[in-house]
Write a structure and sequence with these properties.
Layout (H helix, E strand, L loop, with lengths): L6 E4 L5 H12 L3 E6 L2 H13 L3 E6 L5 H14 L6 E4 L15 H28 L3 E6 L12 H21 L4 E8 L8 H5 L5 H8 L10 H12 L10 E4 L6
Parallel strand pairs: 1-2, 1-4, 2-3, 4-5, 5-6, 6-7
Helix pairs in contact: 1-8, 3-4, 4-5
Length: 254
């Protein structure tokens, strides 16, 4: 049990990568706060974790809102017997793959609110709780798009680049508080809810083949691949690991 009795918040955990992370952490003994914007999705994942013998609580909340983060942290501390040990900032969004001048302002704003401002609000509310606990771990889910950007997702790429740089700066600033900050950069996963937006249309065989040809290990990432990286970073095995980005990408970014 690599994260036994740790209380960990996972945002955007109602499906996809977030669900995979929440389930994996619970398998390894964590008390998991399953956050999502949609109650039915968060409830489904929390109930599945409970049915498998794990500990989970569903908490609905919008990660772009300060009040929702305050409630999320309070629920986590209540569930965890007064402490919070880690947060995985997984909730994310993208504009549709298109030329940069064709992305409307409201899509741009939503991308930065969900991908970047959520980390600001997370820090505002989570850092004091981690300080009170004597330290902890913040894991930000970024993307290979922030390391190896490609045309069509320019504003999304920029938001993930900001997540990467911010994570490193947070690690340097919060290290004296024994708070570790790292990020994970997954490569394209065709099974997520956002895959069609990333691809600029339905992920048909032609698009799958085009993406797959860029990954040396010859397959796409899975939720479990990302979850295993998050498990390591949340565990005490990574006690001296901070300020790094783990590319879960089959060597695409080499």
């Amino acid at each position: 049990m690599r994260v036994r009795e740790k209380t960990i918040v996972v945002t955007g955990a109602g499906g996809g990568i977030g669900e995979g992370i929440a389930r994996r952490l619970a398998e390894e003994g964590a008390r998991v706060i399953v956050n999502d914007l949609r109650a039915e999705l968060a409830d489904r994942v929390a109930e599945a974790i409970g049915a498998a013998g794990g500990q989970a609580r569903a908490v609905v909340g919008d990660v772009t809102q300060s009040a929702d983060w305050a409630r999320l942290v309070a629920q986590a501390q209540e569930f965890g017997g007064g402490r919070l040990d880690a947060v995985v900032n997984n909730a994310g969004w993208t504009h549709v793959n298109r030329p940069l001048l064709e992305v409307p302002e409201d899509e741009f704003d939503r991308v930065y609110a969900i991908n970047m401002k959520s980390i600001y609000w997370s820090a505002i509310h989570v850092v004091p709780a981690l300080r009170a606990a004597g330290g902890g771990s913040i894991i930000n889910i970024a993307s290979t798009a922030g390391v190896r950007p490609r045309p069509g997702l320019t504003w999304y790429n920029g938001s993930k680049g900001a997540v990467i740089t911010t994570s490193k700066s947070m690690a340097a600033e919060l290290g004296p508080d024994n708070i570790r900050v790292n990020c994970i950069n997954p490569v394209f996963n065709p099974d997520t809810a956002l895959s069609a937006a990333f691809a600029g249309g339905p992920v048909d065989e032609a698009r799958r083949a085009k993406f797959l040809a860029t990954i040396p290990l010859g397959r796409f990432s899975t939720a479990l691949d990302v979850a295993n990286a998050a498990l390591y970073l949340a565990s005490d095995e990574a006690a001296f690991v901070s300020g790094v980005c783990i590319e879960v990408d089959g060597a695409r970014c080499v």
